Amino acid sequence: MSKTILVVDDSASVRQVVGMALRGAGHSVIEAVDGRDALNKLDGGKLNLVVCDVNMPNLDGIGFVRELKQKPAYRFTPVLMLTTESEEAKKQEGKAAGAKAWLVKPFKPDVLLAAVAKLA
Amino acid sequence: MARHAKHDGAAALPLLQGTLARAGLALGALLLLLPVVAALLATGRVLLALAAAVPLAVVVVGVTAVVRRVWRRLPGTGRQRLSSELGVVTAETLRRQGLLVDSTAELLPLWTSVIEGGRGSMEEAVTSLARHFDAMHQQLDVALNAGDETDMQAKQHALQAVTATTQQAFGELWASLDASAVRDAETLQLIGDLAEQNAALVGLSGEIRDIALQIKLLALNAAIEAARAGAAGRGFAVVAGEVRNLAIRSAEAGDQVHDTVARVNGRIQTVVEQVQRNVELSRESREHNQRTIGEATHNVTRRAESMAEDAQALMRVRSDIEAQVNEVIVKLQFQDHLSQVLDHTTQAMDDLGTALCPTVDEPSDALAARLASLRERMSRRATTDFERRVLTTESGAPDETQDTASELTFF
User: Fold this and answer.
1) Contacts of B367 (CB under 8 A, 6+ apart)
2) Which residue is closest to A109 within chain B, CA to CA?
3) For chain B, first and last CA: distance in Å?
4) Picking from B20-29, B272-281, B363-372, which range would have the lowest pLDDT averaged per residue?
5) Which end of chain A has fewer CB atoms at under 10 Å, N or C?
6) Do B325 and A102 make contact, defined as CB atoms within 8 angstroms?
7) Closest among A118, A74, A115 to A98, alpha carbons compared
8) What is the predicted pLDDT for the residue at B22?
């Protein structure tokens, strides 16, 4: 079943390949270049999942998730962190901010889609 | 300049010694970075190696700049004393160092621009590549008539159902033709029976004629006997005449029956021949139809099997393409990794440049502490397995870094 997924990453190529994997599985994708851009793109519409990088300019992924969880419309929207970071401390930071899962780049599409299926 | 004037020859030596101590620290940092550059070169990451080489240049610039600055601040007598006591730093060496400093200082921003430009171009190219690849993938999907595997299986089942229905319809038609052959045989048998019965009628009509002839002879004998009896046989003669007339009429009726039966028999024979021809034609037509049905059924079955094989081959091709697309998706993410590594290297260059521009009065310990913190900062900034692996290996510590690619954790 098609889901609407917000992809937040400052790397255009990562947004492209994530979009390719998600669209290939029949999902709709909204792209944002960083946390601030992602907040600006939240219009109250239904989001089934957020896939978010950690290290980004303007507003990083952890900060974005914290702000996202403050919004009533998106309090329960699941967030998957997609990042090169694999340190346990960083993961705990993401978990504390409200993320539901953590996937380390480079990701395999089937692993990403399995996570999407479980979260969205 | 007033501060410079306070230096004399006696004070110059410790100053230069301090400078050399700083240069030693800088060279220490240089030696720390050299293995990193070597590791990057060994892995074939030329752009990264270029990025890592820049800090080396900064080291050279820093060392030579400090030496040059101190050298210029020394009074003439101090320079002479130093030249004579140390005998190491010659005017020619300093001139060359100055040239190196100037050219390196000129090249440094160029290198930074090259790295930044290369990073931007790489990101643009990889993004464009990913976009084109995405479009190509979508077109392939269309070309392969990609639904999911369930769709493909549903189509195969539908095809098998159509084939089964066709075979059933052909089977019923075949049975109908067989029934028609049986009916033709029965009809032929009935007509044959009719012809036989008719032939029996011909024989019966001949017997009637024979009986009439015998009655006619009997009537003639009776007339002769009546004539011989004279007047007494006159009445008998009349009866004999009537019997003779009846015999003649019976013979005529028998002839008519014979003729009629013969004509009917001729017609029946014609009908039999016609029916036999029709039955023969029907048999040929039936055999032709059965051959056609057999071939059609065989063709449909073969085509259905062929289509099923094609569908399976298509699914295999599609599966192979999906695997390759997934592999490309993984490989295309190298740009993000490289971009982060370059960013961290640029930041490390900035740190090093700052660390290597101390004030003359800065204690060597403080400089040593700042240089020592450079590696720690690099480690803190590291966000990729590659950086962590290089930093861990080159520090001499056991490599405990793991390949965390695609590692998924649910909270």
Assistant:
1) B22, B25, B355, B358
2) B326
3) 64
4) B20-29
5) N
6) no
7) A74
8) 58
Bridge partners (DSSP) listed for residue A104: A83
Order of all β-strands in the sheet with A4-8: A28-32, A4-8, A49-52, A79-83, A101-104, B408-410
User: Which of B361, B324, B270, B354 lies closest to B62, judged by CA?
Assistant: B354
| Helix, strand counts (H, E) of chain A | 5, 5
Which of B127, B329, B411 lies nearest to residue A109, judging by beta carbons?
B329
Local structure of residue B115 (DSSP, 8 states):
H
Nearest CA distance, B32 vs chain A (angstrom): 24
pLDDT at B4 over 50: no
Q: Do A95 and B123 touch (CB under 8 A)?
A: no
Nearest CA to B242 out of B262, B263, B223, B266 is that of B223
Q: Do B330 and A107 touch (CB under 8 A)?
A: yes
**ipTM of model:** 0.91
* CA gyration radius, chain B: 61
Written as six digits, the tokens of B24 are 């030693």
Lowest-confidence pick of B75-79, B156-160, B311-315, B344-348: B75-79
Backbone angles phi, psi at A54, to 5 degrees: -100, -55
Asked whether the predicted pLDDT for residue B171 surpasses 50, the reply is yes
Predicted TM-score (pTM) of this structure? 0.58
Residue with tokens 């034609």: B281
With CB atoms and an 8 Å threshold, state whether A104 touches B404: yes
Strand bridging mode B408-410 / A101-104: antiparallel
Selecting from A13, A85, A111 the residue whose C-beta is nearest the C-beta of B127 gives: A13
Predicted confidence (pLDDT) per residue in B344-370, tens digit: 888 887 777 677 665 556 677 777 777
**Phi and psi angles of residue A79, each rounded to the nearest 5 degrees, phi first:** -125, 130
Distance (Å, whole) CA A80 – CA A99: 6
Please give the residue of chain A at the shortest CA–CA distance from B336. Answer: A11
Torsion angles phi and psi, residue A103, rounded to 5: -120, 130
Best mutation site among A7, A65, A82, A86 for testing chain B: the one with the most B CBs within 10 Å?
A: A86
Closest chain A CA to residue B409: A102
Task: Select the more confidently predicted residue: B12 or B195.
Answer: B195
